């Protein structure tokens, strides 16, 4: 069974989101997603300053099995990326909810978070 933290929100495309105290949103991929991918060997994050729309392809993760697009779960501006993933993409496998976050978004509409699934709904979907 996959690890599905209750304090996060989830997209059907297997991204997780965490609303931070400053109103920004941290995004990564779920434990289920990294398990399906297998050993992650490369991560390409979006550029800081890029405006994204909910559902838009904005990053790529490659594993020994496949390459997969990562989608913006909400709309907004990319304000930070996790540079550590360039040198250590395997963090996605070992710490999908911790140090392996992909990017941070300054939401253009925080209400979009309410459209994402809670842990129970995500668990039921997988």
Automatic annotation (TrEMBL):
Residues 24-106 form the Lipoyl-binding domain. The keyword Cytoplasm does not apply. It comes from the Bacteria. GO terms for cellular component: cytosol; glycine cleavage complex. Binds 1 lipoyl cofactor covalently. The modification N6-lipoyllysine is found at residue 65. InterPro entries: 2-oxoA_DH_lipoyl-BS, Biotin_lipoyl, GCV_H, GCV_H/Fam206, GCV_H_sub, Single_hybrid_motif. GO terms for biological process: glycine decarboxylation via glycine cleavage system; protein lipoylation. Keywords: Lipoyl. PROSITE patterns: BIOTINYL_LIPOYL, LIPOYL. Pfam families: GCV_H. Its cofactor is (R)-lipoate. Belongs to the GcvH family. The glycine cleavage system is composed of four proteins: P, T, L and H. PANTHER family: GLYCINE CLEAVAGE SYSTEM H PROTEIN (PTHR11715), GLYCINE CLEAVAGE SYSTEM H PROTEIN-RELATED (PTHR11715:SF3). HAMAP family: GcvH (MF_00272). The glycine cleavage system catalyzes the degradation of glycine. The H protein shuttles the methylamine group of glycine from the P protein to the T protein. This is Glycine cleavage system H protein.
């Amino acid at each position: 069974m996959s690890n599905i933290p209750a304090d996060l929100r989830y997209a059907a495309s297997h991204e997780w989101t965490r609303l931070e105290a400053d109103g920004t949103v941290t995004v990564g991929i779920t434990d289920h997603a990294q398990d399906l991918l297998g050993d992650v060997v490369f991560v390409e994050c979006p550029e800081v300053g890029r405006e994204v729309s909910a559902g838009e392809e904005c990053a790529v993760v490659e594993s020994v099995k496949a390459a997969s697009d990562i989608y913006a779960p909400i709309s907004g501006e990319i304000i930070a990326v996790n540079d550590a993933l360039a040198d250590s993409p395997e963090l996605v496998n070992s710490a999908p909810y911790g140090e392996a976050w992909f990017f941070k978004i300054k939401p253009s509409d925080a209400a979009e978070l309410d459209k994402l699934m809670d842990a129970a709904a995500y668990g039921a979907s997988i």
